[in-house]
Design a protein that fits this description.
alpha/beta; Trp Operon Repressor, Chain A; 2 domains; three-stranded parallel β-sheet; two-stranded antiparallel ribbon; 9 helices; binds ligand 9D3
Length: 241
């Protein structure tokens, strides 16, 4: 699954240029019995299976050993789980300071709690919806992290320019042709007035965030000029309806 990162896109380029290193460990490799068992029935009964502590402890130890050989020590173990705190951009910025990470991905109903108590330092969820395991969430985390590493993104779409970095959704984008299906590009974008363009873009970003993600506006604390632009956006909306 993780080849989606190492074989495609900017995360591939960064991997090949050794901006980051990555290795996936299959817990089955660390099972102790002939059947390579890594899950068992839950104590107390109920549906599904629980991942056994022992193969995961061995897998984490193997990851630690490899990291030590590469000069990385004390990397925290991050468990991707629906019970974790919701992963935010600020968490990625925080994880970026670390020299290494060990990401633990669950399958089945979850992981034996004793393994979590012994080994896990942090827990993250990627959203309030049910997935079938922690691998895709781990890949989301890694993708978000890798693009923040120095040199991974070009100057043009540098991480500093991300709209989430300033707590707003992006403004609308347009490219050629200037008329498509009888719809024109907003005139201001063809005007060449860079101050009017950035004002229009901020207004659109504020308006869309207000419409689609009022939760972001509530925590953002708008400046006077931003409040003014958002009011203009609302007035423009009333005019159109
Ligand atoms: C349907 C099973 N659920 C029983 C009430 C619990 C459950 C266990 C394991 C639900 C999902 C999963 C697998 N998910 C993850 O490992 C996971 C996840 C997710 O499902 N949503 C959002 N973030 C994450 S991070 C890891």
């Amino acid at each position: 699954m993780f080849e989606a990162l190492t074989r495609y896109g900017v995360t591939r380029r960064a991997f090949e240029q050794e901006v980051y290193d990555f290795k996936a460990w299959n817990p089955r490799q660390f099972a102790e019995d002939a059947y390579k068992t890594i899950d068992d029935r839950p104590y107390g009964g109920g549906p599904g299976m629980v991942m056994m502590a022992q193969p995961l402890e061995k897998a984490i130890a193997a990851a630690r050993n490899r990291q030590s050989s590469l000069g990385v020590n004390d990397a925290p173990v991050v468990y991707l789980t629906p019970q974790g705190r919701l992963l935010k951009q600020a968490d990625l910025a925080d994880l970026l300071k670390l020299d290494g990470l060990i990401l633990l991905c669950g399958r089945y109903e979850g992981v034996d709690e004793r393994l979590i108590e012994k080994e896990v330092d942090r827990e993250y969820s990627v959203g309030d919806y049910v997935l079938s395991g922690g691998e895709l969430p781990a890949m989301l985390l890694l993708d978000g992290l890798i693009r923040l590493l120095p040199g991974v993104l070009g100057d043009a779409d540098s991480a500093a320019q991300d709209s989430f970095a300033d707590g707003l959704l992006d403004y609308p984008h347009y490219t050629r042709p200037d008329v498509y299906n009888e719809r024109s590009v907003p005139e201001v974008l063809l005007s060449g007035h860079h101050d009017r363009i950035s004002r229009w873009r901020l207004k659109q970003a504020l308006g869309r965030t207000w419409l689609r993600r009022p939760d972001l506006i509530a925590v953002r604390e708008l400046g006077f000029k931003e409040q003014q632009l958002l009011n203009e956006f609302k007035q423009d909306m009333d005019k159109k309806e």
